[in-house]
Design goal:
Blueprint: E1 3-7, E2 11-16, H1 35-42, E3 49-50, E4 59-65, H2 68-79, E5 84-92, E6 98-102, E7 105-106, E8 112-113, E9 116-127, E10 137-146, H3 153-160, H4 174-184, E11 191-199, E12 206-210, H5 215-223
Parallel strand pairs: 4-11
Antiparallel strand pairs: 1-2, 2-4, 3-4, 5-10, 5-11, 6-9, 7-8, 9-10, 11-12
Length: 232
């Protein structure tokens, strides 16, 4: 059963689990379960239309329209940046306290697009985990707000500033991922869409939807001595 965060006659939002595809994808032809079909079955067969996307490994708030008119309204609002998306991520190293990353990205069709991400650091941590001839390893928890919505934007942007997201494959640090797989059996990615802020497409009522972090994110937070109580 998917966790439903909000539902009315126009829109519905879920807390998407990590590992669940939003819909069928050429890049993940092995998958047999999708958020669209699971949610449709859960609410009695009503059609649902995804308004935005989350990567397969990314958990968190995922918003659907319940008819095509609402879908168009919300697509327009995403396009004009009237919707604010907030993500939590655990990064390798200690990032700058805050930064706006303005770094163009090239999509699968070879088209270069402007991409902008603002983030601020929430917590630093250091644990006794030897890496690169050092006795300890450093990580940080950040909140990221992408101003644009390019494919794999956050993963690519954090790799660009040499603070890749823990567990990201690709666009991560393969050596760190291997280290965490061997020591802590980590197979997930530490990226979670924890909040979506927008006005309701019909009533224009302000909405703030929050999604709790999953067990894997919480487990990694415990290993790293991060305080995640606010997000659990």
């Amino acid at each position: 059963m998917l966790e439903i965060l909000y539902q009315d006659e126009y829109i519905i939002a879920i807390n998407k689990p990590s590992g669940l595809l939003v819909h069928k994808s050429f890049y993940a032809r092995d998958a047999k379960v999708y958020a669209i079909q699971e949610l449709r079955n859960q609410i009695g067969g009503q059609h649902v239309y995804p308004i935005h996307r989350l990567d397969r490994k990314t958990s968190g708030v995922l918003l659907f329209a319940l008819d095509k008119e609402v879908l168009k309204i919300m697509n327009d609002r995403f396009a004009t940046r009237e919707v604010e998306k907030k993500y939590l991520a655990i990064l390798r190293g200690w990032s700058p306290e805050e930064l706006t990353i303005d770094y163009d990205l090239t999509n699968d069709d070879g088209i270069t697009q402007n991409a902008i991400t603002y983030f601020h650091r929430l917590q630093n941590t250091e644990i006794e985990l030897a890496f690169n001839n050092k006795p300890t390893s450093r990580y940080c928890l950040v909140e990221a707000i992408p101003e644009t919505g390019r494919m794999h934007q956050l993963r690519k942007h954090f790799k660009h500033i040499f603070h890749p997201i823990l567990g990201s494959r690709p666009h991560g640090c393969n050596k760190q991922n291997k280290l965490w797989l061997e020591h802590f059996e980590l197979k997930g990615m530490m990226l979670h869409a924890h909040q979506l802020i927008f006005n309701h497409p019909i009533t224009n009522e302000p909405l703030i939807l929050n999604a709790k972090i999953n067990e894997e994110f919480s487990r990694v937070g415990t290993i790293l001595n991060l305080d995640l109580n606010t997000y659990e």
